[in-house]
Design brief:
There is one protein chain. The protein is mainly alpha-helical. Helices cover 63% and strands 3% of the residues. The chain has 21 helices and three strands. The chain has a three-stranded mixed beta sheet with strand order 1-3-2. Strand 2 and strand 3 form a beta hairpin. Bound molecules: zinc ion. The site of zinc ion has 4 residues, from helix 11 and helix 12.
């Protein structure tokens, strides 16, 4: 069937409106990147205004009568089927975001912006003073705003579902609970077995020496190039906290952070951000200037960064190839064997701080936060109960008790931003990465020996083809089913941990 002239005109006008909104958002992202990297200190107040202006313009265009009219026309029954697949996906995705923003009362949004701006300052102070009590009143307010938001959006089973949906569309408590139960029942015993083994890798040489920033940066750039990150469509710079950003698949900005007394962390965070950046670079360029030109969800995005950081960057195969060049770059490491190095970068030790956690304990940190967040949002936990709940769970899962609130419930920035429902996407990333890598090993002939020869491109091309190219045209659930032949399954991650750490610590299930 032919599309009518009215529909053709509407889809063209709709697309150009979407393109312009995307241009504003992309420009805002670049201003944000500049703010974190090169902007002189004094530029900060004006930059905040510039970014707020762009955000307001984009919001106005997104909720304009023009947008309403296009979506009303393009979502009429019988119309979407006549559009090409890209236009269909675009109407679906923009419509989804439009519906969500329409459901959120403007005063609630404004209250959230004002509260979190204030909350951030309070959190910084409370953390410095190690006093949760100082943060408690504003956190109570943030939770009640999130509950109001969930009510406005609507949900089936739990108000927490409405918050999860912001970061991982469609994800629910019903799906997450069994995943976390499985992880808890498998990882807590694994951690105990590791702690009971008599092997404690020496890590002192990772920090014992002076590893010049310039050399670290050069090494990271080389590895990123070998991975297939396109430096003609991207950059690597320095910032206080590593991140990945950019304005299109042809302009991706990565940052890393360098400690000249730590030989591994900058490389590791570069590979992590490189995984995010290569996802963005790998999207079909025809989707640029639309929201489809992005990773499909935070969980799938994190699977790409975790794969390069851990499945590749902490693997024996990778270091079989790269260790000698690392030793050439940093001669201090010449006294260290490949095995000693491989064990050191895979040391397992429960820590108070999530961002310092190893692969084994990391998801236990997320589990704690998930259980606490869910209880707070569902009204099963009072805000003043958080520090005690934190201490109990840290003891139960990690076997350690924080000595103060800064080491405990005040360590993460997310709640001060107003973000509830974000943490689980980190765990999803780990689970997806293991499941994808398992399929990659089956489909790429001799993948591990290729990696051991420094050939990282075959994995990159596979990821480009199987996961990156579709951008947001497919949902996370569709991608994992198509690529691996089944829905998300935590068993792959559990097996990966037991195989790898069983070998290092000489333990078995
Ligand atoms: Zn990440």
């Amino acid at each position: 069937m032919q599309t009518s002239t009215a529909t053709t005109a509407s889809i063209m006008a709709f697309q150009s409106l979407v393109n312009e909104i995307h241009d504003l958002n992309a420009t805002q992202a670049l201003l944000g990147w500049d703010l974190e990297t090169y902007m002189p200190e004094k530029g900060s107040p004006m930059r905040a205004k510039q970014m707020a202006t762009l955000a307001k313009l984009a919001h106005n265009m997104m909720t304009s009568p023009e947008m309403e009219e296009h979506l009303r026309h393009l979502r009429q029954s019988g119309i979407p089927e006549k559009l090409d697949t890209m236009s269909q996906a675009l109407v679906r995705e923009v419509g989804r975001v439009y519906d969500k923003s329409r459901k959120t009362p403007l005063e609630l949004l404004q209250e959230m912006v004002e509260t979190t701006a204030e909350a951030h300052k309070i959190w910084v102070e409370a953390r410095a003073n190690k006093q949760f009590k100082q943060f408690e009143p504003v956190l109570r307010k943030i939770i009640s705003l999130n509950q109001r938001f969930a009510e406005a959006q609507g949900y089936e089973d739990s108000p927490y579902d409405a918050l999860l949906d912001e970061y991982e569309p469609g994800l629910t408590v019903k799906q997450l609970d069994p995943l976390f139960v499985k992880l808890k029942s498998e990882i807590v015993p694994l951690l105990k077995a590791i702690q009971n083994s008599d092997h404690t890798p020496d890590t002192s040489f990772l920090f014992d020496g002076f590893f010049p920033a310039e050399k670290q940066l050069q090494f990271s750039r080389q590895v990123l190039t070998d991975m297939g990150f396109d430096f003609e469509a991207g950059r690597l710079d320095l910032s206080a906290h590593p991140f990945s950003s950019g304005s299109s698949s042809l302009d991706v900005r990565l940052t890393t952070r360098i400690d000249e007394h730590d030989v591994f962390s900058a490389l590791s965070s570069s590979m992590h951000e490189g995984g995010h950046g290569m996802y963005e670079q790998g999207v079909n360029p025809a989707l640029n200037r639309t929201p489809l030109a992005e990773g499909t969800s935070l969980g799938i995005h994190e699977s790409q960064s975790r794969m390069w950081e851990n499945q590749v960057g902490r693997s024996r195969a990778f270091w079989l190839h790269y260790f000698s060049s690392l030793q050439e770059t940093f001669p201090e490491l010449k006294r260290v064997t490949l095995d000693q190095f491989y064990h050191a970068i895979n040391r397992v030790r429960p820590s108070y701080i999530r961002v310092e956690a190893d692969e084994v304990t990391y998801n236990l940190h997320i589990l704690m936060r998930y259980e606490i967040e869910k209880a707070l949002i569902e009204g099963d936990m009072r805000v003043d109960e958080v520090p005690d709940a934190w201490a109990t769970k840290a003891q139960e899962y990690l076997g350690i008790t924080p000595t103060n609130d800064a080491e405990g419930c005040l360590q993460d920035i997310h709640w001060s931003h107003g973000s509830f429902g974000y943490f689980p996407t980190y765990t999803l990333g780990n689970l997806y990465s293991a499941q994808f890598f398992n399929t990659a090993k089956k489909q790429i002939d001799g993948l591990e020996s290729k990696i051991a020869q420094g050939n990282l491109q075959s994995l990159k091309s596979w990821l480009n083809r199987e996961i990156h190219w579709v951008g947001k045209m497919e949902t996370a659930g569709t991608i994992v089913q198509r690529v691996t032949g089944e829905p998300l399954n935590a068993q792959y991650f559990v097996d990966y941990l037991w195989t790898k750490y069983g070998e290092i610590f000489k333990i078995s299930r």
